[in-house]
Structure formats: structure tokens, C-alpha cells
Amino acid sequence: MEEDLVIRIRDVNPHIVCSLCAGYFINATSIVECLHTFCKSCIVKYLQSSKNCPQCGTQIHETQPFQNLRADRTLQDIVYKLVPGLFENEEKRREEFFKARGVSKRVTEGEENLGPKLSATLNNGQAHQYKFDEQVCLCLERYSPQFVDCEVGRFQLPSLDKKFIRCSVRVLIVHLKSMIIKKLDVPETLKVCMLCDETELEDEMSMKQVYLMYWYCRPSPMVLFYRLKEPG
């Protein structure tokens, strides 16, 4: 009988801790030349005064170092899986950041339930199992028949011929929007928005985030709605 392999969090800390802030990666971002990874905010701030990797000294780009940075969403997903409460705390911190500056977040409804949903996820016995490039099943439904006036006349948003899809949990909302716009020939002057549980979703949200926040413990497929954004 095979024994379960137990890995202590301190054993993997060197691989998931930012050397600039000594905290766990938030928005993990790697340097293309050397593949060293840091928090996005940390490396962006660092590169304002230096053009070399803070770990190995490799020159990034003499004039445009930010072009050689790449988001590492797989690593960030692993970090959220390994460190209980990190995702939840980061969402709360972001909420406090926007609130302190009087800026309205696009996702507002249902955020009061964010804590319990994520806590339930992190306390679940299987919450920290990780599979490379996990897949999620989606059902993309038209929110309602819509007629919107635009430069090409009166446009009605049709339904997708194939509304069931399977994609990586790393896919972003903005990617789904682009696919819908292309498949439904939405005029360039119109914008599409996506919703889950009557809440409009931010472009940079991944399917993993949407699932954890709005669909955890609910049956597959995860249902997302799309509709046209009213002009003005």
C-alpha cells in the first residue's frame, strides 16, 4: 500500500515566496530572460530604478524592461492552492484599497458573501489538490434577447450555436468575450459583458476565480451569461 506523501509548506517556500517583499506571490510575474519570478507590484516598482534582475543580475531590457515581464498564472494558481487564506485575504485587501480611494469596483453584488464561499473552499479536504492545467466545463447562455442601436443599424445579440465548452481554468473573462464577439459578429462599436449569479465579471478574472467565488460546490457546467452593454 502506497503511503501518502506529506510536503511541509516551509519546504516549498523558496519556490513561492517573492525575494523582494518576502511574502507569497501575488500576481506572480516572471522575467523572460532568466525566468525568476516576483510579485507584479514588487518587480514593477523595482524596475523603475534598475534594469537588472534582482536575483541574478541579468539585464532585462535597457530601455523597455516591462515588455519582458510575463504573468505566471499557473504558478499563482499553485500558490493560492498551497497557502490557505491567501486568495481570500488578497481579495479583501483589494476591496479595502478601492474603498479607501472612493473607486467603485465593477464587481459589487454578492461580494459580502465572498468570505464564506472562499473559506469553505479552503477548509475543504480536497481544496489543495492541484492538477496541471485543470479544465472547467462552461455553459454560455444569452442573458436575454436584446436590440441595441449602433452604427450598422439595429443589432440583436443572437445565441451561440454551441453553448457548451471546455477550457482551462486559466482562461480569462476577456478571452471569452473576444470569442463571443467573433462568433456572433458583434459590431465593433458594441461591447459585451459577462455575468455569473447576476454579477458582472471583471475582464481579468480567471475561470478558477469565478468558480471559487460564485460556483463552488454547484453542479457542472458553470453557467455564465453574456449580454450587450447598453451605450452610455
UniProtKB/TrEMBL annotation:
Residues 18-56 form the RING-type domain. PROSITE patterns: ZF_RING_1, ZF_RING_2. One of its GO terms (cellular component) is PRC1 complex. InterPro entries: RAWUL, Znf_RING, Znf_RING/FYVE/PHD, Znf_RING_CS. It is found in: Nucleus. One of its GO terms (biological process) is negative regulation of transcription by RNA polymerase II. Keywords: Metal-binding, Nucleus, Zinc, Zinc-finger. It comes from the Eukaryota. GO terms for molecular function: promoter-specific chromatin binding; zinc ion binding. The keyword rRNA processing does not apply. Pfam families: RAWUL (PF16207), zf-C3HC4_2 (PF13923). This is RING-type domain-containing protein. It comes from Potamilus streckersoni. The lineage of its organism: Eukaryota, Metazoa, Spiralia, Lophotrochozoa, Mollusca.
